[in-house]
Amino acid sequence: LCCWRERGTYWGMWNIAHNLGGFAAPLVAGGFAKAMGWKWGMFAPGIIGLVVGVIVLLACRDKPEDIGFPPVEPVSSKPKGEEKKKDDVDIWSALVNNVLKNPFIWGMALTYFFIYVVRQGVTSWFVFYLIKVKGVEDAAQAAVRVSGLELGGLVGSLIAGKLSDGLINASEGRGGNVGARVKVVMAYTVGIALSLLAFQAVPANLPWLQWLNVFLIGFFIYGPQMLIGLCGAELVGPSSVGASEGFLGWIAYLGAANAGIPLSIIVKEYGWNTYFSTLIAACALALLLLSPMTRLRSYVQREASRKARLEGKTE
Length: 315
Prior knowledge:
Layout: H1 7-15, H2 17-36, H3 40-59, H4 80-87, H5 91-100, H6 103-132, H7 139-145, H8 148-171, H9 177-201, H10 207-235, H11 241-257, H12 261-270, H13 272-290, H14 299-314
């Protein structure tokens, strides 16, 4: 619901809900469990989610025009019959025609897969790595050393969105808006790989440095996690954004699932060095998938070009 010039900034602000929720969940669940029993450790978050969901359902509107505001990005005026026909397209047609037939959406989805392998691989296994390899005494101490992940992710999401907006505005319309955001994703992905290598090298007797290293890993992971979704939204038309985001999210969580048993087998059979090599390989594959997309234009840009070509023909 905002212009492409500032969408990265606002999308980043929305995305920190992941980090705020991840930070608040153990406090809320733990607090209710301690005060009212373990069952309320599960009931309370669910009730809060239901209440917030009802508020969102009643308060949110589909687009600014529904409450009297002008459209954020008017692209082209079309005949009323065509608009009506477009509005009647169902979600399945939007998914097939605008999402599944778009090779760049597939590229984004597979990139998301590898980013989520890394994200879930870090959140699921770092505590065990610190205990088994770095000699941290117990899970509580290890958890403290990895507690900077969500805080780093919050900062990384905000800065990634702002950086991508800055690149787009600096280009003054000469490049692809989606491509500009892809460049930020690639830079962050390199940062993930370097931070993972650094985490292996940090000695166990420097807990503050391990915490800072984990902060940086979170910083670099959540930037791509946020921006890939935004790229997928900007690649397709407004009627297909939900289908695009749903498809990307489905593939992403397949990646998260593959950070479970597959990584456990890797750790058990081949050791922790291979575990880190696997995560870094996932970063490399993500970079490879993104490399052809650095000049991608958004749906709005493509529509504006189409409109300009049509107007040129009629003059």
